[in-house]
Structures are given as structure tokens and as C-alpha cells.
Specification:
heterodimer; A: mainly alpha; about 0% strand; globular; B: alpha+beta; 4-stranded antiparallel β-sheet; 6 helices; elongated
């Protein structure tokens, strides 16, 4: 990793691309949404370059970009619009007992992503990376925080999520 | 770990997502970073939707007096990928499709219609078009040089910051 900060949005994006795709694909589970998230992230990065370009270290710039892609992915997951059918219940269809069950699972998942999206800033991003299959150490490195911080965010998030999601699911089912 | 969402075991939700994310991360398909960058630029070069409607009547007449009206026949290009970008346009009537040449195949990016600003990436000096825009039917547009546009937008309180930011904060390079 170079010591000097990246001087333009394109070189930062190219350097972090593999990680961005891993995060987006792990969260979204399909090619089209992942590509959309990446495209929108690059767009956001260019728009925010006056801020990102001024960050003192490449690590902070990378963390900023990772947080942009998390934000884009969560946006797609929370507001599926036309993408309802692609929401990403990735279980093998044969294992689903009925269509009803699939539809219910999608609705439940959307509420779960909504609850995750509503967690406060850094906690939300820590949880999103965990949901993308990251180990605690990887999350810490990626976001530029301590492992102990990651651990405490996840522990609080578990409690918060189980509370809100249980409530939302019950409400949704009447 | 079950592949099913633990609907009745709320405490395990995050672990369930983690296992799922890990499985997916093990099989991330190939993505072409250069293609992503060109598509993002093309979408941006497609400009601001509803630009015209955010202008005040006074701003519209100021824009009109600095611009000229140009009519594009169906199927002709309003701008072409790779060409020098020295003008911006506001579509008055008609629709144009925005597309990219990807290895000889045309990739449709988006569509622009009445009230939309296009080609606004041209406001960076020395830049070239990142997408081609073709008139679907007859298109009537207000055309303005990028210099005039930059001057116009600089003291235009009606234009949202987002549009202005797109003008000033983009890199000058091209993929």
C-alpha cells in the first residue's frame, strides 16, 4: 500500500476494486446489483473527491470508499423497487417448501436490512462487513478501527437487531 | 449452519448473514473495473435530469439568451463518445438515448428527455465525451458553450449544489 494518499478517484477506485466487489457481492448476491452498486459508488466517490482527496492517508481513503459501497449496497437491499425479485434469498430454491415461504423470507430479510441500515454510522458499517463474511480483524483493518471497537459494535448490534427485528417481524405478520 | 434464515432464533441473525456472506465471498465473479468506471462516467455525462425545472424563470431566460436552438433529426448524434466536449445542451423536445461502445457492441445506458441537461462533463477543459447520445425522434435542444455554461452556473442560486458539484469536483482524466 502506498504511503502517500491517492491523488485521484480513479486510482483509489482501481486499487480498492477487488475488496469493493467482494463486499458488494457478499451483501447483494448477484452480478447485476453488484455492478450497479460499484458504478454508483464510483459516482459518489467522484462527487465526494473534494473531501476524500484531502484525507491524510491511503488507509483512510480506502475506508471511506468501503463505507460508500456499503451504503450503496444497503440502499439496494432496503429499497428494492423493481429489484424485489432479486432481493437475494440465496438459498437453493429446492430447499424452500413453498412460494409463500420464499415471499415471507424476502419480506423478513428486507426488514432485517432496514434494521441494519438504521444502526448508527460506524456500527452499521461494522455489521454490514460482518454480514459480508468478514472476520473481526478484517473489519477493523478495512474501516481503520480497533478490533475491540468492532467487537463492542457487534455485541451491541446483536442486541439491538434482535429487539427491532423481532418487533418488526411480529408487526408485519399482524 | 443452516441455509435457512433463522426466523425464530433472532439472536442468530447476524451469524446467519455472516455465514451467507462468507459463502458468497468465496465465489465472487469477475468484474471489469474499467468498464464500471466508463459506465459511471457515461451515466454522469448523461447529465442532470430535470435541470430545466429547477431554474427560475429569470435563470431560464438568461440561459436562453446565451444559448442557440439546434434541431437534431431522428437517428443523428447529439454528441459522440471520444469527441471533444465543448458544449452542453438542454433538451426542449424529444428524447435521446445515451449509449457506450463496448467492444463494438452498443450498450444502452439511459435516456434523456425534455428538461434534462446533457454533456455537462464537458465543463472540464480539455475533456472528451464519455458517451454517445442519439436522437430517438426529432430533438430540439438549447446548445451552449461550456465556457458560457460555467459562467452561467457559477452565479445561479436556483441550481442545486449537486449539479454544481458535478461541475467542479470531477477528475479531469478519462478512463
Amino acid at each position: 500500500m502506498p504511503q502517500a494518499p491517492y491523488s485521484d478517484a480513479e486510482s483509489l477506485f482501481r486499487a480498492v476494486h477487488t475488496e469493493l466487489m467482494r463486499v458488494a457481492y457478499a451483501l447483494l448476491g448477484n452480478h447485476a446489483d453488484t455492478e450497479d452498486a460499484a458504478q454508483d459508488s464510483f459516482f459518489k466517490l467522484v462527487t465526494a473527491w473534494h473531501r476524500v482527496g484531502g484525507l491524510p492517508t491511503p488507509g483512510e481513503q480506502r475506508a471511506y470508499l468501503v463505507r460508500i459501497v456499503i451504503n450503496e449496497a444497503l440502499h439496494i437491499l432496503r429499497y428494492p423497487h423493481k429489484r424485489w425479485e432479486r432481493l437475494g434469498v440465496d438459498a437453493d430454491p429446492a430447499s424452500w417448501e413453498s412460494l409463500d415461504e420464499q415471499v415471507q423470507a424476502k419480506a423478513d430479510l428486507r426488514l432485517l436490512w432496514k434494521a441494519i441500515g438504521e444502526l448508527p454510522g460506524m456500527r452499521r458499517d461494522v455489521v454490514a462487513l460482518r454480514a459480508a463474511g468478514y472476520e473481526y480483524g478484517e473489519i477493523a483493518e478495512s474501516l481503520g478501527v480497533k478490533v475491540s471497537t468492532v467487537r463492542s459494535h457487534i455485541s451491541y448490534a446483536r442486541k439491538q437487531l434482535s429487539r427491532t427485528v423481532a418487533r418488526d417481524w411480529e408487526r408485519a405478520r399482524g | 449452519m443452516s441455509r435457512r434464515m433463522p426466523a425464530d432464533r433472532h439472536g442468530d441473525l447476524l451469524d446467519w448473514l455472516y455465514e451467507r456472506g462468507k459463502r458468497r465471498a468465496a465465489g465472487v465473479p469477475e468484474f471489469d473495473v474499467e468498464r464500471t468506471i466508463s459506465r459511471a462516467y457515461a451515466a454522469r455525462d448523461a447529465g442532470a435530469v430535470n435541470f430545466w425545472s429547477v431554474l427560475s424563470p429569470a435563470e431560464r431566460s438568461a440561459f436562453e439568451s446565451a444559448a442557440r436552438i439546434q434541431v437534431f433529426a431522428p437517428g443523428t448524434a447529439l454528441m459522440r463518445e471520444g469527441e471533444q466536449a465543448d458544449e452542453v445542451m438542454v433538451i426542449l423536445d424529444g428524447w435521446a438515448k445515451v449509449c457506450l461502445d463496448e467492444d463494438g457492441r452498443e450498450r444502452f445506458i439511459t435516456e434523456r428527455g425534455p428538461g434534462d441537461l446533457i454533456g455537462e462533463r464537458g465543463t472540464v477543459p480539455g475533456n472528451v465525451r464519455s458517451a454517445t447520445m442519439i436522437a430517438r425522434g426529432t430533438v430540439r435542444a438549447l446548445v451552449m458553450t461550456t465556457e458560457d455554461y460555467t459562467a452561467f452556473i457559477a452565479d445561479c442560486p436556483g441550481v442545486p449544489d449537486l449539479v454544481k458539484k458535478q461541475t467542479y469536483d470531477r477528475p479531469t482524466g478519462r478512463p
